[in-house]
Each structure stands twice: as structure tokens, then as C-alpha cells.
Amino acid sequence: MNERAIVCKGLTKRFGDFIAVNNISFDVDQGEIFGFLGANGAGKTTAMRMLCGLSYPTSGEAAVAGYNVFKQQEAIKRNIGYMSQKFSLYESLTVKENIRFYGGVYGLSDRQLKEKGDELITQLGMENEVKKMVGSLPLGWKQKLAFSVAIIHQPRIVFLDEPTGGVDPVTRRQFWDLIYAAAEKGITIFVTTHYMDEAEYCNRISIMVDGRIDALDTPANLKQQFRATSMDEVFYALARSAKRSAD
């Protein structure tokens, strides 16, 4: 992990007088699992949209997969994968049709689509489901399929926006096994989550409060810093501190 997948310096996004993302700076190593935490409205999604090439920053600097977020947004999109909480799948298409559609969007050739698609289906154990509509699948299977489709083109980085929302704890843990397997292949994982137990699975985490990054370190170091036994306690300590400052 000696290369930087993401470099971010002073990144800021304003909407009129409102500062959604306030001068944030951090680096993410290639192959790292980086957790991006914060309450609703903290600025996580706005920051992620800038890093994915979907929104221009107001000021600051950032590079994703070596490409400038101001000048090379299309190159960024070609080198990343993305999965949202809604899993980004077309429920009225079959499993196979979803795989072919997203593989095509990511620029795979017909031969690559065949090879990668067959490999993906086998890995997920979905040989008997390839002709089923995605809308008929259990939630956990949709989740695993959506993640696998998001990395079918072997991107340098995959952005996961609340990917485990609404699924049971066992399925969430199985999903993290997929994340670990992708990271072992060198794919950088940039993940937002509101499940504090999942923060423990990350190599490092940042915690956003009111558009700022108020903490950034390994889970173990943060718990030590805040004299906490869990990431929940760290998060609540930061929230209390922010409230006192606002008052």
C-alpha cells in the first residue's frame, strides 16, 4: 500500500452561503479499506460526489486514481466503481442482463463480458438464478451482486455509499468478506456507513462533523485517543464536543 489512490487537500464545497464540505484533507493508500463516517448531513455524500467526478469542488485540490477532480472527471469515472445503498441494479432485468449491462457501461468487450460474467456467477453461486429477475432475489443476494458488478472491470477504487443499509447482521458480515477479497486484489475500498461496528473492519476511518473531518486514524488509535471501548463511544464523544462548540 505504497501508492496513493486518493489525495485530498483543502477540499471545499459551498452552496451559496452554506459550506457542505469544509476544507477537508486526507490520503487513501492503494488497497486500503477506508471508512468515511458521519451523521446524516455531515457532508459525506457531497464529498463522495466530488471524488467520483460527479460534482465540481468550490476550492481545494484532489486526485482520484491519479486524475484531477477539476479537469479529469471522465477519466476518474472510468477508473472507479460505485455502489449505493439502493444497490444500483435494474430489478426488471435478469441477473445476466444486469451483468452484461454494467459490464458494457464499464467498457468491457464481449469476450471480457463472457469471461467475467461467468466467473462472477460462479463465485456468487448464482448459476440457478441467472435468468431470474433481480427484483425477485433476496436482499442479501442483490447486495452481493451489486458489489460484484461494481468491480467487474477491476477498478482501482470502488466507492460504497451505505452499502449494508437494511440487511441483517449475518448478511452484512458476509458482504464484508467480499470487501476483504477485493482489497486483497489491490482494489481500494472507500466506504460510508452508519454502522459503527463496521468501522472496526476498516484499516483507517475518518469521522465528519458539520462538513469537517474531526477525527482520522485507525479504529484502535481512535478508541485509545478518546478512552473508548467502541467506535460508538468515539462517535458520540465527537458529537458532544461539536454540540458544546456550537452552543
UniProtKB/TrEMBL annotation:
ABC transporter domain segment(s): 6-235
SMART domains noted in UniProt: AAA
InterPro entries (alphabetical): AAA+_ATPase (IPR003593), ABC_transporter-like_ATP-bd (IPR003439), P-loop_NTPase (IPR027417)
Pfam families: ABC_tran
Keywords per UniProt: ATP-binding, Nucleotide-binding
CDD domains, sorted: ABC_DR_subfamily_A
Recorded GO MF terms: ATP binding; ATP hydrolysis activity
Transmembrane segments: none
Protein name: ATP-binding cassette domain-containing protein
Originating organism: Chitinophaga tropicalis
